[in-house]
Amino acid sequence: MNWIGLYTLLRREVERTFSVVIQTLVAPAVSAALYLFIFGTVIGSRIGDFAEVPFITFVFPGVLLLSVINASFACASSGLYFMRFSRSIEELLIAPLSYFEMLIGFVGSAVIRALIVGGLIVVVGMFFGAITLVAPIAFILYVIAIAAIFALLGIIVALWAENFEQLQVLNTFIITPLTYLGGIFYSITFLPPLAVIITQLNPFFYFADGIRSSMIGYSEANTAIGLFVIFGLLVGLGVLVGSLFKRGWKIRA
């Protein structure tokens, strides 16, 4: 393992995050504050408590999940795509780094950015009085695993995209709709039976439920199924991206 090279790649990607701090850190915090105000304070004041906690506390894990997904996906997809676009990927290819180390660098930097954004969202949640944490270790592991999944998805999109418009296709037409339909702002007990079944087929439902259960101790999904979905996606996407890197798909001319 080339630890110096891996550290350099991680440092470069993290520095890129802080070079546009308004876009990467401030904007997610502002968006989270607006979500908490609208869904937690305004709507929550009419709903009252749910699952023995204030509704704003019930909603907060979904707000956090949304921010983590966006941060991780954007970091991985934009970082690799701009390297392809500017042809600087060639400098990385001739560096003494294996494809596995490159993969760890891109995924690791995206996870770091997601953790930083998640920390800022937690601070925002404290101002709204929305924070409770019943299983801190499980919470951190869920956030890391979910961030890694969307970092891998971001890498796939960055390899596939041929222009800036394609770079946003997956996020706009698949990730965002599935996120909002995955129970991040509501309980499935509010839904009719058919909608509950459809929601349970949505993997994003298990992402939200995992983080919510670790924060407030309330779960609406089968935990074993949720862990299987998360672990399966992590391994499956990891193998896929690893094979694409090894083949040099779209990164070797």
Task: Please describe the topology of this protein.
Elements: H1 3-19, H2 21-42, H3 44-47, E1 49-50, E2 53-54, H4 55-85, H5 89-93, H6 99-127, H7 136-160, H8 164-167, H9 169-180, H10 193-200, H11 203-216, H12 223-247
Antiparallel strand pairs: 1-2
Helix pairs in contact: 1-6, 2-4, 2-6, 4-6, 4-7, 4-11, 6-7, 7-11, 7-12, 11-12
Describe it.
The chain has one domain (3-247). It is 77% helix and 2% strand. The chain is mostly helical and 253 residues long. The radius of gyration is 19 Å and the shape is globular. The model has no long low-confidence stretch (mean pLDDT 92). Helix 2 packs across helix 6. The chain has a two-stranded antiparallel ribbon.
Oligomer: single chain
Rounded to an integer, what's the Rg over CA atoms? 19 Å
Give the overall silhouette.
Answer: globular
- The number of helices is 12
Distance between the termini: 26 Å
Query: Which spans of ≥5 residues are poorly predicted at pLDDT below 50?
Result: none
In which range does the helix fraction lie?
Answer: over 70%
Give the topology string: H per helix, E per strand: HHHEEHHHHHHHHH
Which properties best describe this structure?
single chain; 253 residues; mainly alpha; two-stranded antiparallel sheet; 2% strand
In short:
The chain is built from twelve helices and two strands, in the order αααββααααααααα. It is mainly α and 253 residues long. It has one domain.
